[in-house]
Amino acid sequence: MFTNLKDFFSSKTGLQAFESKEYRYFWLAAAFSNIGMWSLGYGRLWLMHDLTESTIMVGLVGFCTLSPMIIFSFFGGVIADRVNRLTNIRLTRGLFSLLALITGITISIEFMTPSILLFISVLTGILLSFDLPSRSAMLPALVKQKLLSSAIAMYSIVFGISSILGPMIFVPINNVMGIQGIFYLIGSCYIFTLLCLLKMNSSLHKTKAQTENVLSNLKDGLSYVFKSKTIKYVILLGVFLTIFSSSFDTLLPKLSEEMSEKGIKAYSNLLLGSGFGGLSATLFLIFFGTRIKIQNYYIISAILLGFSFIFLSLTSYLLLGIFITFILGGTKTLYGTLSTTLTQNLTDDIYRGRVMSMHQLIWSATAIGSIFSGFLAKSIGLSITIGLSGFFIIICGLIFGKKIIKNIS
After folding, report:
1. This prediction's pTM
2. Residues 329, 305: Cα–Cα separation, whole Å
3. 10 lies in a domain?
4. Which conformational region is residue 386 in: left (phi greater than 0), alpha (psi within -120 to 50 degrees), or beta?
5. Contact, 243 vs 59, CB < 8 A?
């Protein structure tokens, strides 16, 4: 029994991670950063939809943003294990701010074109390739080992917060300032992120000196992952799930217009439903994450994600669609967070940057899924594409889930 709420929070929940001053700064930086990243991603998708009304072009935005990560993220992981990780993300976050402000200015002076938007998306993807491995690898240096799972769960809540705040401010800012206002907001968020990062102690994030060259480091990292069957299967499952679940982000602008005449408002409401689902899943992990079998909930959430896609493909009613996106957002957040937790817990620190760069393939697989779902929707229709995505998510969850649970057992 616990005599007060402080005892409960400190011993049973992810809030204990906030005892670390460095983690508090890191979390606050992530909060601003993820509001910016959410707005950046969905703002560009809607902007391309507004410019072209083409599902293929919207898919190309995701492809151009994340395909560079397939090429460069491995090297980003090597860099994360060779240079100061905090210094690296200070640089990348500053450049994110600059890119967002340039995008807003380009729209304001009516110079924005689909080609320019795709070029900016490519630059963003290159920066992400070097940003994400360093950011992921920093977490273990901020808290005690026993609090790592709690720190990851608390870190994940910023995704839930941003996915709620993003849709809430998306339409008002667009109505008052136009779509360029979204990108000015993004630039401001990244400036606040940089200020928080400058308050952190960079000496905690120095890496061990490497005697091998970059290519040798890369080879060692790949060998480490392939020898670890659990990490390998977690990454493979995540990649396949992302490829098929990318249809949600790519096709949502078009789907929202089919559900309601007020396309951008329906788009915002569907995203808001997904955001509340994601936040609910994160709160569940914070308060009950220490009491669950991670691998079991990981697989269950993947299978439920597939069913939510199938149900979404069968409805044309906005309110029901919002409820389904609530389930979809929750299950997507749950499996994403647990995937990261499993990988972090199973990785030796000397390989952490390289392993997390390979784990980022899960997210960068959106590049394949976005363009594929855009073409498929044009060929066989929107609803059929979303429904098929759900079916394949379920199949992948069952196949790889069995292997993951068997290896951990």
Report:
1. 0.69
2. 8
3. no
4. alpha
5. no
Domain total in the chain: 1
Q: Angle at the Cα of 66 (from 81 to 348), degrees rounded to 5?
A: 25
Q: Is 213 helix (H, G, I), strand (E, B) or coil?
A: coil
- The arithmetic mean of pLDDT across residues 163-180, rounded, is 78
| 292, 87 contact by CB (below 8 A) | no
Helices first, then strands: H and E counts in the chain: 16, 0
Give the amino acid at 174.
N
Task: Give the Cα separation of 17 and 148 in Å (integer).
Answer: 8
Distance, CA of 342 to CA of 346 (rounded, Å):
6
Structural contact between residues 87 and 31, judged by C-beta atoms closer than 8 angstroms: no
Looking at per-residue confidence, does 72 or 206 come out higher?
72
* Domain around 78: 18-202+214-408
**Does residue 135 lie within any of the structural domains?**
yes
Specify the CATH number for the domain of residue 163: 1.20.1250.20
pLDDT in tens, 213-262: 777 877 887 888 888 888 889 989 988 998 888 878 778 888 888 887 66
Task: Give the residue from 270, 276, 282, 365 showing the smallest Cα distance to 322.
Answer: 270
Residue found by looking up tokens 């949600």 in the block: 248
Three-point CA angle 267, 270, 272, nearest 5°: 105
Q: Single out the residue of 325, 38, 20 nearest to residue 154, CA to CA.
A: 20
Mean pLDDT of the region 118-128: 91
Amino acid at 230: T
Q: What gap in Å lies between CA 241 and CA 366, rounded to an integer?
A: 9
Cα torsion 65, 69, 71, 75: sign: positive
Mean pLDDT, rounded, for 158-175: 74
Show the tokens assigned to 175: 């109505």
End-to-end CA distance of the chain: 31
Among 267, 370, 279, smallest CA distance to 322 is for 267
Helix pair 179-198, 148-177: axis angle to 10 deg: 150
